[in-house]
Amino acid sequence: MIPAARSPNRADLDGSGWADPHPPRRLGFAVKIAGRPDLKDHDSRRWQNGPHLRVSLHYLDQIFAYLAEHGIRMYRISSDIAPYITHPDLPQFHQQIEECRDALTALGERARALNLRLSMHPAQHIVLNSPTERVAAASMSDLAYHARFLDALSADANAKIVTHTGGVYGDRAAAADRFVRHYESLPSAVQRRLVLENDETSWSVEEVLRIHERTGIPLVFDTLHHAVNNPSRIAVHDAFRLCLATWPAEHVPKIHFSTQRREHREISRQDPNTGIRAGVRVPAKPGQHDDWIDGNEFIAFLEGAGDARFDVMLEAKQKQLALFRLRDDLLAAGRSGDIW
DNA sequence: CGATGTCAAGGAATC
DNA sequence: GATTCCTTGACATCG
């Protein structure tokens, strides 16, 4: 771990005229803090026990303190932060954002003071292009909750909600049409925040680019998904540049970066016959996230990125510990002036 | 206290 | 048509 005090000082790397202690590109991580069970990311109690956003916000405040301590300026908030807020059968949970207005305002101010870029990534059940009307409608209301939450923080325009296109359902053209149609029917509060990520099975960079062309939705380039789902063989930096170009000039684009797991790993599995739980070694399947970020791979990616402005959300099992280790690698390679 | 079952929600691959 | 995986933990209950 590198304490914030050890982060190297640099001058005016972004041309702003200010001697910023940090380089312009931000490194972030998602939701959970590894090795710190005391730092929870949301109130996960069952509905019978009355979980509440105000408890989650207390947790988030402690996470912000951790981020400040370590000079981390990018973080993905748990989509479960407001428990059951869109559950159709539990209306008593639906007003949590209003009930926490003051705490949300205060946390938003804190995030701004930390120059913290926030984001959210709704769970896999949120499928905007579902042919099931009920699922699509529930997805739209869930996206609206995410937007209300970020708005209640007064988060800036770079605080995005990241989604995938959804399923294919045996008819790709119809599935894309449904995404476009449902996107266009979203309130502008959601449209302002929503960005689209290439996925690992169904919607490659080439395909999300077509959706961008029809909707204007900005694209988050995911390096690992591109590595495993790239049917038209677009070179990685070409795909990267195409996605970056989908962002309006006044916003800072971002990408997802992760290293693919290569080794076998040991998992705990229960034998269906004996019921005995034991460690089993299984080979890594394509597309799985590694515990860490490969520093050489990351630096090679930066070399090809030129002077483009963008932020990087790291997706590694070891979470912020992977970020710290990558910082060490960047420092050793003399590249910490680019990104921190 | 340790072990075990459960958790709001979808889609796709496999058989 | 039904099952399992994605992915993983943490909560909740039971013995």
Account of the 3D structure:
- With 340 residues, the chain is of the alpha/beta class.
- It has one domain (10-332): TIM Barrel.
- The protein has helices spanning 53-69, 96-99, 101-113, 133-152, 172-184, 188-191, 205-215, 223-228, 236-244, 295-305, 319-332, and strands at 27-30, 74-77, 117-120, 160-163, 194-197, 219-222, 254-257, 265-270, 277-282, 311-314.
- It has an eight-stranded parallel barrel with strand order 1-2-3-4-5-6-7-10, surrounded by four helices. It has a two-stranded antiparallel sheet with strand order 8-9.
- Helix 7 links the parallel strand 5 (194-197) and strand 6.
- The longest helix has 20 residues, at 133-152.
- It is globular, with a radius of gyration of 20 Å.
- The relative contact order is 0.13.
- Mean pLDDT is 87; it is low at 1-19 and 269-278.
- The chain binds a DNA duplex (15 and 15 nucleotides) through helix 4.
The largest beta-sheet arranges its strands as: 1-2-3-4-5-6-7-10
Low-pLDDT regions: 1-19, 269-278
Order of helices and strands: EHEHHEHEHHEHEHHEEEHEH
Q: How many domains in all?
A: 1
CATH superfamily: Divalent-metal-dependent TIM barrel enzymes
Oligomer: single chain
Distance between the ends:
13 Å
Largest sheet: 8 strands, parallel, barrel
Identify the CATH class: Alpha Beta
CATH topology: TIM Barrel
Q: On the 0-100 scale, what is the average pLDDT?
A: 87
Number of helices: 11
Q: Say how many strands there are.
A: 10
CATH-level-2 architecture: Alpha-Beta Barrel
Shape: globular
Category from helices, strands and their pairing: alpha/beta
